[in-house]
């Protein structure tokens, strides 16, 4: 299917699904966006998909950094979060960008505990040496 056929198909979908009374929202049920859910009516889900299809059609230039997705009319005002921009890239996300503070917490706590044990061992060794030296010479 070429771009013209895809564009015609998306235009047909766009005119078939009314924007009126369509709603869609993104909510967090937990502590962050990794614990999220979507809620909407049938037309809301269809319109959400159509808007992303329309955005994909607008991407014609490989050097385009962002694309516009018209979601303002669709996303509920009480939605927990909104996307402010839509990045265009052929490259997957960098591993650095994928890291989360929760992913780094366990290694940080483990290293912190090791450092604490090492410091306490040095203090304890120093205390024992000081005690023995005062007993022997004191």
Determine Rg (CA atoms, Å). Answer: 28 Å
Using the alpha-carbon principal axes, give the shape: elongated
Q: What portion of residues belong to β-strands? A: 5-15%
| Low-confidence sequence ranges | none
Distance between the termini: 94 Å
Describe the 3D structure.
By secondary structure, the chain is mostly helical. It is built from four helices and four strands. The strands form two sheets. Strands 1-2 form a two-stranded antiparallel sheet. Strands 3-4 form a two-stranded antiparallel ribbon. Strand 1 and strand 2 (36-40) form a beta hairpin. It starts with a helix and ends with a helix. The model has no long low-confidence stretch (mean pLDDT 85).
Topology, element by element:
Blueprint: H1 3-16, E1 24-28, E2 36-40, H2 42-58, E3 66-67, E4 86-87, H3 95-98, H4 101-137
Antiparallel strand pairs: 1-2, 3-4
Helix pairs in contact: 1-2
Descriptive tags:
138 residues; mainly alpha; two-stranded antiparallel ribbon; two-stranded antiparallel sheet
Question: Summarize this, please?
Answer:
By secondary structure, the chain is mainly alpha-helical. It has helices at 3-16, 42-58, 95-98, 101-137; strands spanning 24-28, 36-40, 66-67, 86-87.
